[in-house]
Every structure is written in C-alpha cells, then in structure tokens.
Amino acid sequence: MLLCASRFATSLSFMVYAGALVPAMQAWGMSAGEAGSIQTAFNIGYALSLVGSSWFADSLGAKRVFLWASWATALTGLAFAFFARSPESGLLLFALVGLTQGGTYAPSIMLVAQGVPAARRGAAVGWLLAAGSLGYFASIALAAWLAERFGYEAAFIACGLGPLLAALLATPGLRGRANPVAGGGARRLRGAFRFLADRRSFLLTAGYTTHCWELLGMWAWLPAFLTASLANSGGAGVRGLWIAAAIHLSGFLSSLLMGRASDRLGRRAVLVAMGLLGAACSFTIGWMDGMPLVLVLAVAALYGFSALGDSPVLSTAMTESVEPGSLGAALAVRSILGFGAGGAAPLAVGLVLDQTGGMAGQMGGTPWGWGFALLGVGGGLATVCALLLPADRPHRS
C-alpha cells in the first residue's frame, strides 16, 4: 500500500508541466517547438534514469536503488518548483527531475515481480501503475487549476512537493524488505540482450518502444488540445478537472482492468486490443476541435484508457520473458529504446504544429490533426508487434 502511495505522490510532479503548459508558454513567450523541447528534455533525462537505475538494480538491489532515486527526486522536484522561471531554467531543472524520477519506475516493478506469482502479477503491476495514473490525474487537475487561477508558479510549487511526500512514504514502506542482489555482470549483459535472439522478447521491446512514442507524445500535448477545446466553457478549475479526468482517470481504470484481463485472457490478446484502440484515437482526436465537448472528452477518455492500457501488460510480459538475475539489465535496454523514442515525440509534435499553423493562430483541426496522427504511427506499429507475438495461454491461479 505504501509503495502504491509513493508512486501516486511521485507522479504529482510528472504532469505538472503539461498541466500548466499554456500559461507557461504565454508567460515565457515560447513557440510550440520551444515548449515541446522542455518536455523532451524531461523525457530524455527520464530515459537515462530508467537505464541507469534498471541496470544497477541487479547489482545493488531494487530496494536500494528505489530509495536513492526517491530522495533524489524529492530534491530535484523542489528545485524545479521554486526556481524554474524561464525557458532556460525550466528546461534544465525539468531535465534534472526526469533524470532522477525515472529511477523510481523500473525498481518498483521489480519489487512487485519479486513478491507476486505469475497468476496475479499482471493485476499487481496494474495496481502500481494505476496509482501513478491517479497521481497524473491529480497533477494535471491541480496544475491546470492553480496555473489559470494563481499562475504557473503556484502550480509548480504545489505539485513539486509530491516527490518529497513520496520519499517519506517509501522509506518506512520498504523497511524490513529483502534486497536481493544478482552477481555476474557478463550473465546480466547476456540476459539484457536476449531479445536479439528471442522472438517474444524482441517484439515486446519493439512494441514498448512504439507504445512510448504514442503515450509520451499524447501526455505532453493532449492537455493543451483539451484546454483549447474547453476554452469557452466553465471556469479554470472545472476545465482542469475535465482534462485530467479524461486523460488519467481513464488511464487509472485501464491499468487496473487490463493488467487483470491479461492474467485471464493472455498478454497478446490485450496488447492487440489496446494497440488498435490507441491508434484509432490518435488518428481521430486531432480533427475533433470544434465538435461537441461531450464527444471530444469521450474520445479523450478512450484515448487515455487505450494508450496506457498496454503498459502493465508489456511490463508484466517482460518480467516473464527474462530470467530474474538479468531483469534489471533487460529493462535498462528496453528503457533506452522506449523512452529514447518517446522522448522525441513532444518535440516532433510541436514542430508539426509550428509547420502546419501552430498554436498562435487558429486552434482549428488541421495543425492538431497532423500532430496527433504522427503519434498514431506508433500505435499502429505497436499493434503489428502484438499481432506477431507467439500465442500465449492465460495464467490460472
């Protein structure tokens, strides 16, 4: 319970920039490309952190790496909250947040995998990631409301305190927990690159890479799109809640339901369904600006559900494809590929928006449509990877 609570609190700072994006762009005088570069800097730092923490979790233990990363994230979260006041400082400090926060992700999955049998592992990983999605909901809702009511500075400070709370929760939560350490660096390295020779591991890694492209790009730009669509409705607080609910409460539900569904129906079936649905949403939602708000929010909720629904399944399937002593190293390789590709997505979408009309002029469907269609390519490729996976059988408890 404390591990999930810590995941929730850490996630409060993950989406703060996306939630406060429009007010921050106006205050700092940024173009869409410049705004996207800050999120990309965070994603690149996050990817590097994922790689390092995953690799060292084998030799140092997942518990130790997780706690170190939690306290480092608390420090960088506070630095971003109080000192990010320009495009330059924002880019540097948000990159540092990503560079530390990624260290809490893979070790937490490893901690779950170490203690939960395969028949319930999908559901357990789903609970962990669902706690993160609930944190993303709170992050965007709080950031959007505070940024429009009191300024982006208030949003940064309120959400930046989340990682400190996470570290305070994680420390007692893991007290007395074993810290298994694997030896043999060469053995870990062979396990890390097993996907080069194993069809299932290779396809899972390729699917994760394309999944990250779609997911990270969607997380960065969908709040801004919904802010534009909801500009003439309600107050700032209401808009922030609608945006966060559409994206991340649906993601919370999908993490819970799809992890459990993969235990019952098999990993491959769930990955195919989520890949198809996510790609369909990517190719659709950008052209919906100006349509009835109920319809736009419904598709956004479906988008959030599908884009995150394969996350617990991909992570669970990877823990089952790699031997435990090499799991951290394998997750490191997966992370550099997935978040390396996903880290570029916000910048790529921002450049498309600039080239097709941008956000400064009309907020019509054409620039948004092409931007989200670029993300849909990732969803389509993830579906292909899932279809090519060997058939698997549901786990029986």
CATH topology: Growth Hormone, Chain: A
Class, according to the CATH hierarchy?
Mainly Alpha
* Helical proportion, percent range: over 70%
Based on Cα principal axes, name the global outline. globular
Number of helices: 18
> What structural category characterises the helix and strand content?
mainly alpha
Main location: membrane
Signal peptide: 1-18
Keywords: Cell membrane, Membrane, Plasmid, Signal, Transmembrane, Transmembrane helix
Domain Major facilitator superfamily (MFS) profile: 1-394
Plain-language structure description:
This protein is mainly alpha-helical and 397 residues long. It has a single domain, classed as MFS general substrate transporter like domains (Growth Hormone, Chain: A, Up-down Bundle). Helix content is 81%, strand content 0%. Helix 4 packs across helix 7 and helix 13 packs parallel to helix 16. The longest helix is centred in the middle third of the chain and has 33 residues. About 2% of the residues have low confidence.
